[in-house]
Write a structure and sequence with these properties.
Strand content: 15-25%
Number of strands: 13
CATH topology of the largest domain: Peroxisomal Thiolase, Chain A, domain 1
Oligomer: single chain
CATH class of the largest domain: Alpha Beta
Strand order of the largest sheet: 1-7-6-4-5
CATH architecture of the largest domain: 3-Layer(aba) Sandwich
Number of helices: 12
Helix content: 25-40%
Structural class: alpha/beta
Number of domains: 2
Protein backbone atom coordinates (compact mmCIF):
# COMPACT_ATOMS: atom_id res chain seq x y z
CA UNK A 1 0.00 0.00 0.00
CA UNK A 2 1.43 3.38 -1.04
CA UNK A 3 1.89 6.05 1.61
CA UNK A 4 -0.33 9.11 1.27
CA UNK A 5 1.25 12.55 1.44
CA UNK A 6 -0.28 15.98 1.03
CA UNK A 7 0.97 17.80 -2.05
CA UNK A 8 0.53 21.45 -3.06
CA UNK A 9 -1.64 21.52 -6.19
CA UNK A 10 -2.55 25.22 -6.46
CA UNK A 11 -1.27 28.57 -5.23
CA UNK A 12 -2.94 31.96 -4.82
CA UNK A 13 -1.86 35.31 -3.49
CA UNK A 14 -2.81 38.90 -2.89
CA UNK A 15 -0.91 42.04 -1.96
CA UNK A 16 -2.48 45.51 -1.65
CA UNK A 17 -1.87 48.11 -4.36
CA UNK A 18 -0.46 50.79 -2.05
CA UNK A 19 3.35 50.76 -1.98
CA UNK A 20 5.22 52.14 1.03
CA UNK A 21 8.78 52.57 -0.17
CA UNK A 22 11.86 53.60 1.73
CA UNK A 23 11.67 57.17 0.43
CA UNK A 24 8.27 57.55 2.09
CA UNK A 25 9.61 56.16 5.37
CA UNK A 26 12.42 58.71 5.28
CA UNK A 27 9.73 61.37 5.68
CA UNK A 28 8.06 59.54 8.59
CA UNK A 29 10.95 58.51 10.83
CA UNK A 30 14.67 59.19 11.15
CA UNK A 31 16.07 56.70 8.64
CA UNK A 32 17.45 56.45 5.12
CA UNK A 33 16.93 54.21 2.13
CA UNK A 34 20.58 53.18 2.27
CA UNK A 35 20.34 52.18 5.93
CA UNK A 36 17.15 50.17 5.44
CA UNK A 37 18.48 48.30 2.41
CA UNK A 38 21.82 47.58 4.07
CA UNK A 39 20.23 46.31 7.29
CA UNK A 40 17.17 44.48 5.91
CA UNK A 41 17.27 44.17 2.12
CA UNK A 42 13.83 45.81 1.88
CA UNK A 43 13.07 48.41 -0.78
CA UNK A 44 9.31 48.60 -0.40
CA UNK A 45 6.33 46.94 1.22
CA UNK A 46 2.61 46.74 0.41
CA UNK A 47 0.11 48.36 2.77
CA UNK A 48 -3.64 47.86 3.00
CA UNK A 49 -4.34 51.59 3.07
CA UNK A 50 -8.11 51.09 2.92
CA UNK A 51 -9.18 50.98 6.59
CA UNK A 52 -12.07 48.70 5.65
CA UNK A 53 -9.74 46.00 4.29
CA UNK A 54 -9.21 43.36 6.96
CA UNK A 55 -7.22 40.14 7.14
CA UNK A 56 -10.30 38.20 6.03
CA UNK A 57 -10.59 40.35 2.89
CA UNK A 58 -7.00 39.74 1.85
CA UNK A 59 -7.40 36.02 2.55
CA UNK A 60 -10.55 35.84 0.44
CA UNK A 61 -8.85 37.64 -2.45
CA UNK A 62 -5.90 35.22 -2.32
CA UNK A 63 -8.32 32.27 -2.30
CA UNK A 64 -10.22 33.70 -5.27
CA UNK A 65 -6.92 34.07 -7.13
CA UNK A 66 -6.18 30.38 -6.45
CA UNK A 67 -9.65 29.31 -7.53
CA UNK A 68 -9.50 31.34 -10.75
CA UNK A 69 -6.10 30.01 -11.77
CA UNK A 70 -6.67 26.38 -10.79
CA UNK A 71 -10.27 26.00 -11.95
CA UNK A 72 -11.22 24.32 -8.69
CA UNK A 73 -14.87 24.43 -7.62
CA UNK A 74 -15.02 26.42 -4.34
CA UNK A 75 -17.76 24.11 -3.05
CA UNK A 76 -15.26 21.23 -3.14
CA UNK A 77 -13.02 22.83 -0.51
CA UNK A 78 -13.29 20.96 2.79
CA UNK A 79 -11.31 23.18 5.13
CA UNK A 80 -9.40 26.45 5.51
CA UNK A 81 -6.53 26.63 7.98
CA UNK A 82 -5.61 30.32 8.34
CA UNK A 83 -2.33 31.33 9.93
CA UNK A 84 -2.47 34.92 11.18
CA UNK A 85 -1.33 37.17 14.00
CA UNK A 86 -3.71 39.95 12.96
CA UNK A 87 -7.23 38.49 13.11
CA UNK A 88 -10.19 40.66 12.19
CA UNK A 89 -11.34 40.36 15.80
CA UNK A 90 -10.28 38.54 18.93
CA UNK A 91 -13.58 36.69 18.48
CA UNK A 92 -14.84 35.22 16.05
CA UNK A 93 -12.24 33.35 13.99
CA UNK A 94 -11.10 35.17 10.87
CA UNK A 95 -11.05 31.96 8.83
CA UNK A 96 -14.81 31.68 9.24
CA UNK A 97 -15.29 35.16 7.78
CA UNK A 98 -12.83 34.45 4.96
CA UNK A 99 -14.71 31.28 4.02
CA UNK A 100 -17.92 33.27 3.70
CA UNK A 101 -16.27 36.03 1.63
CA UNK A 102 -14.57 33.54 -0.68
CA UNK A 103 -17.71 31.45 -1.24
CA UNK A 104 -16.40 28.31 0.46
CA UNK A 105 -19.89 27.21 1.40
CA UNK A 106 -18.96 23.62 2.34
CA UNK A 107 -15.73 24.34 4.20
CA UNK A 108 -15.00 24.68 7.89
CA UNK A 109 -12.28 27.06 8.96
CA UNK A 110 -10.14 27.98 11.93
CA UNK A 111 -7.26 30.30 12.81
CA UNK A 112 -3.77 29.27 13.88
CA UNK A 113 -1.29 31.69 15.43
CA UNK A 114 2.40 30.89 15.48
CA UNK A 115 3.49 34.37 14.37
CA UNK A 116 5.99 34.27 11.48
CA UNK A 117 6.13 30.47 11.71
CA UNK A 118 2.35 30.29 11.35
CA UNK A 119 2.13 29.20 7.74
CA UNK A 120 4.63 26.39 8.28
CA UNK A 121 2.69 25.12 11.30
CA UNK A 122 -0.60 25.45 9.40
CA UNK A 123 0.85 23.59 6.41
CA UNK A 124 1.66 20.65 8.66
CA UNK A 125 -1.82 20.77 10.18
CA UNK A 126 -3.52 20.85 6.80
CA UNK A 127 -1.30 18.05 5.55
CA UNK A 128 -2.36 15.86 8.47
CA UNK A 129 -6.02 16.36 7.52
CA UNK A 130 -5.31 15.22 3.97
CA UNK A 131 -3.08 12.31 4.99
CA UNK A 132 -5.80 11.02 7.32
CA UNK A 133 -8.09 10.52 4.34
CA UNK A 134 -10.94 12.43 5.97
CA UNK A 135 -10.58 15.50 3.76
CA UNK A 136 -9.66 15.74 0.08
CA UNK A 137 -9.08 19.44 -0.50
CA UNK A 138 -7.63 21.65 2.24
CA UNK A 139 -6.62 25.28 1.86
CA UNK A 140 -3.76 26.61 3.98
CA UNK A 141 -3.40 30.40 4.07
CA UNK A 142 -1.02 32.83 5.68
CA UNK A 143 -2.31 36.38 5.99
CA UNK A 144 -1.31 39.39 8.03
CA UNK A 145 -2.24 43.05 8.04
CA UNK A 146 0.87 44.10 9.91
CA UNK A 147 0.17 47.78 9.27
CA UNK A 148 -2.61 47.45 11.86
CA UNK A 149 -0.14 46.63 14.66
CA UNK A 150 2.92 48.61 13.59
CA UNK A 151 3.86 51.91 15.20
CA UNK A 152 4.93 54.18 12.36
CA UNK A 153 6.83 56.35 14.81
CA UNK A 154 9.12 53.43 15.74
CA UNK A 155 11.89 53.24 13.16
CA UNK A 156 13.10 49.89 14.51
CA UNK A 157 9.90 48.10 13.48
CA UNK A 158 8.00 50.18 10.91
CA UNK A 159 10.67 49.63 8.25
CA UNK A 160 10.23 45.86 8.42
CA UNK A 161 6.60 44.95 7.95
CA UNK A 162 4.05 44.83 5.15
CA UNK A 163 0.62 43.37 4.42
CA UNK A 164 -0.34 40.43 2.24
CA UNK A 165 -1.84 36.98 1.88
CA UNK A 166 -0.85 33.69 0.29
CA UNK A 167 -2.70 30.39 0.09
CA UNK A 168 -2.06 26.86 -1.16
CA UNK A 169 -4.32 23.92 -1.90
CA UNK A 170 -3.35 20.54 -0.46
CA UNK A 171 -4.51 17.25 -2.00
CA UNK A 172 -3.52 13.61 -1.55
CA UNK A 173 -0.66 12.02 -3.47
CA UNK A 174 0.49 8.39 -3.40
CA UNK A 175 3.38 8.74 -5.86
CA UNK A 176 6.03 9.87 -3.38
CA UNK A 177 5.39 13.60 -3.82
CA UNK A 178 4.30 16.09 -1.18
CA UNK A 179 5.21 17.14 2.34
CA UNK A 180 7.53 14.51 3.77
CA UNK A 181 8.73 15.77 7.14
CA UNK A 182 8.54 18.63 9.66
CA UNK A 183 10.50 19.71 12.71
CA UNK A 184 9.03 22.43 14.94
CA UNK A 185 10.35 24.03 18.11
CA UNK A 186 9.20 26.67 20.61
CA UNK A 187 10.80 28.61 23.45
CA UNK A 188 8.46 30.72 25.57
CA UNK A 189 11.35 32.79 26.91
CA UNK A 190 11.33 34.55 23.56
CA UNK A 191 8.08 36.37 24.32
CA UNK A 192 10.01 39.15 26.05
CA UNK A 193 11.98 39.87 22.88
CA UNK A 194 9.18 40.02 20.30
CA UNK A 195 5.49 40.56 21.02
CA UNK A 196 2.47 42.82 21.08
CA UNK A 197 2.21 43.29 24.87
CA UNK A 198 -1.41 44.41 25.27
CA UNK A 199 -4.82 43.37 24.03
CA UNK A 200 -4.90 39.81 25.33
CA UNK A 201 -5.95 38.16 28.58
CA UNK A 202 -2.64 38.89 30.35
CA UNK A 203 -2.85 42.63 29.70
CA UNK A 204 -6.21 43.89 28.55
CA UNK A 205 -6.94 47.05 26.62
CA UNK A 206 -6.99 50.15 28.80
CA UNK A 207 -6.43 53.84 28.38
CA UNK A 208 -2.94 53.31 29.80
CA UNK A 209 -1.99 50.54 27.33
CA UNK A 210 -3.17 52.68 24.43
CA UNK A 211 -1.26 55.70 25.72
CA UNK A 212 1.94 53.69 26.01
CA UNK A 213 1.49 52.16 22.56
CA UNK A 214 1.47 48.62 23.90
CA UNK A 215 -0.83 47.40 21.13
CA UNK A 216 1.99 47.63 18.59
CA UNK A 217 4.80 45.22 17.77
CA UNK A 218 7.81 45.58 20.03
CA UNK A 219 11.06 43.73 19.55
CA UNK A 220 14.67 43.43 20.59
CA UNK A 221 16.07 43.27 17.08
CA UNK A 222 19.53 42.01 17.96
CA UNK A 223 18.26 39.06 20.01
CA UNK A 224 15.67 38.13 17.39
CA UNK A 225 18.28 38.35 14.63
CA UNK A 226 20.69 35.95 16.34
CA UNK A 227 17.96 33.57 17.50
CA UNK A 228 16.41 33.39 14.02
CA UNK A 229 19.68 32.40 12.36
CA UNK A 230 20.41 29.80 15.00
CA UNK A 231 16.88 28.35 15.07
CA UNK A 232 16.31 28.14 11.33
CA UNK A 233 19.77 26.69 10.67
CA UNK A 234 19.34 24.05 13.37
CA UNK A 235 15.85 23.00 12.24
CA UNK A 236 16.93 22.70 8.61
CA UNK A 237 19.97 20.62 9.52
CA UNK A 238 17.81 18.34 11.65
CA UNK A 239 15.34 17.78 8.81
CA UNK A 240 18.13 17.10 6.33
CA UNK A 241 19.82 14.63 8.64
CA UNK A 242 16.59 12.82 9.47
CA UNK A 243 15.87 12.34 5.76
CA UNK A 244 19.44 11.38 4.79
CA UNK A 245 19.84 14.50 2.71
CA UNK A 246 22.63 17.01 2.21
CA UNK A 247 22.45 20.62 1.07
CA UNK A 248 23.43 19.46 -2.43
CA UNK A 249 20.25 17.36 -2.62
CA UNK A 250 18.00 20.40 -2.10
CA UNK A 251 16.75 22.21 -5.19
CA UNK A 252 15.12 25.17 -3.44
CA UNK A 253 15.12 26.76 0.00
CA UNK A 254 12.02 28.82 0.84
CA UNK A 255 12.85 30.83 3.98
CA UNK A 256 10.77 33.23 6.02
CA UNK A 257 11.32 36.74 4.65
CA UNK A 258 12.21 38.67 7.80
CA UNK A 259 15.59 40.13 6.94
CA UNK A 260 17.89 39.53 3.98
CA UNK A 261 20.90 39.22 6.27
CA UNK A 262 19.15 36.44 8.18
CA UNK A 263 18.25 34.67 4.93
CA UNK A 264 21.82 34.93 3.64
CA UNK A 265 23.29 33.72 6.93
CA UNK A 266 21.02 30.66 7.06
CA UNK A 267 21.84 29.78 3.46
CA UNK A 268 25.56 30.09 4.14
CA UNK A 269 25.31 28.01 7.32
CA UNK A 270 23.54 25.26 5.42
CA UNK A 271 25.99 25.39 2.53
CA UNK A 272 23.23 26.04 0.00
CA UNK A 273 24.09 27.96 -3.15
CA UNK A 274 22.62 31.45 -3.08
CA UNK A 275 20.75 30.94 -6.35
CA UNK A 276 18.75 28.15 -4.71
CA UNK A 277 17.37 30.43 -1.99
CA UNK A 278 14.11 32.16 -2.92
CA UNK A 279 13.88 35.83 -1.89
CA UNK A 280 11.19 38.48 -2.42
CA UNK A 281 11.63 40.53 0.76
CA UNK A 282 12.78 43.50 -1.32
CA UNK A 283 9.21 43.88 -2.67
CA UNK A 284 7.01 43.04 0.30
CA UNK A 285 9.01 43.31 3.51
CA UNK A 286 8.08 40.96 6.33
CA UNK A 287 4.43 39.94 5.90
CA UNK A 288 4.69 37.55 8.88
CA UNK A 289 2.56 34.44 8.19
CA UNK A 290 2.23 35.40 4.51
CA UNK A 291 5.92 35.38 3.58
CA UNK A 292 6.29 31.70 2.68
CA UNK A 293 3.16 31.36 0.52
CA UNK A 294 3.91 34.69 -1.19
CA UNK A 295 7.33 33.33 -2.15
CA UNK A 296 5.60 30.29 -3.64
CA UNK A 297 3.14 32.58 -5.42
CA UNK A 298 5.88 34.75 -6.91
CA UNK A 299 8.12 31.89 -8.04
CA UNK A 300 5.61 29.09 -8.70
CA UNK A 301 6.79 28.63 -12.28
CA UNK A 302 10.33 27.84 -11.07
CA UNK A 303 9.25 24.77 -9.07
CA UNK A 304 9.12 21.55 -11.06
CA UNK A 305 7.70 18.14 -10.18
CA UNK A 306 10.27 16.17 -8.21
CA UNK A 307 12.13 19.23 -6.89
CA UNK A 308 13.24 18.86 -3.28
CA UNK A 309 12.14 21.94 -1.33
CA UNK A 310 13.19 23.00 2.16
CA UNK A 311 10.96 25.47 4.03
CA UNK A 312 12.02 27.26 7.21
CA UNK A 313 10.67 30.03 9.44
CA UNK A 314 11.19 31.77 12.76
CA UNK A 315 8.77 33.95 14.69
CA UNK A 316 7.60 35.45 17.96
CA UNK A 317 7.21 33.07 20.85
CA UNK A 318 9.85 32.04 19.97
CA UNK A 319 8.53 29.63 17.32
CA UNK A 320 10.57 28.07 14.56
CA UNK A 321 10.91 25.05 12.35
CA UNK A 322 11.58 23.50 8.97
CA UNK A 323 9.69 21.31 6.51
CA UNK A 324 10.85 19.13 3.65
CA UNK A 325 8.72 18.48 0.59
CA UNK A 326 8.99 16.98 -2.87
CA UNK A 327 7.17 19.24 -5.30
CA UNK A 328 4.29 18.01 -7.44
CA UNK A 329 2.41 19.38 -10.43
CA UNK A 330 0.13 22.36 -10.00
CA UNK A 331 -3.33 22.13 -11.47
CA UNK A 332 -2.53 24.96 -13.86
CA UNK A 333 0.41 22.93 -15.16
CA UNK A 334 -1.75 19.82 -15.58
CA UNK A 335 -4.44 21.58 -17.65
Amino acid sequence: MNTTHAVITAIGGYVPDTILDNAALEKMVETTDEWIVARTGINERRIASDPNMATSDMTALAIKDLIEKSGIDPTEIDCLVLATSTPDRVLAPTAVVACEKAGLTNAFGFDLNAACSGFLYALSTGAAFVESGRYKKVLVAGTDKMSSIVNYEDRNTCILFGDGSGVVLLEANTEGLGIKDNIFRTDGKGVQFLSVPAGGSSLGSTEDTVHHKQHYVQQDGRTVFKSAIKGMTSACNDVLQRNNLTADDIDWVVPHQANLRIIDAVGQNLGVAKEKVKVNIQRYGNTTAATLPLVLWDYQNDFKAGDKVLFTAFGAGFTWGASYAIWGNLRTQQN
